[in-house]
Specification:
The protein has about 60 residues and is mostly helical. Helix content is about 55%, strand content about 5%.
Amino acid sequence: MELPNDPMMLFSVINMKLRDCYPSLDALCDDLGVSRQDIESRLQAAGFEYNPEQNKFW
């Protein structure tokens, strides 16, 4: 899957998929064939961090 380059769009897409389809960030990354490190670093640069208890970036 090609992820959006815009950090706010990426934030929105990832959180929607985590909410609707996946029990964890690892499950999302495995299924979509994307790098967890890439997602986390891109979203951290925009000021977001992953909360595993809530299964979302905030």
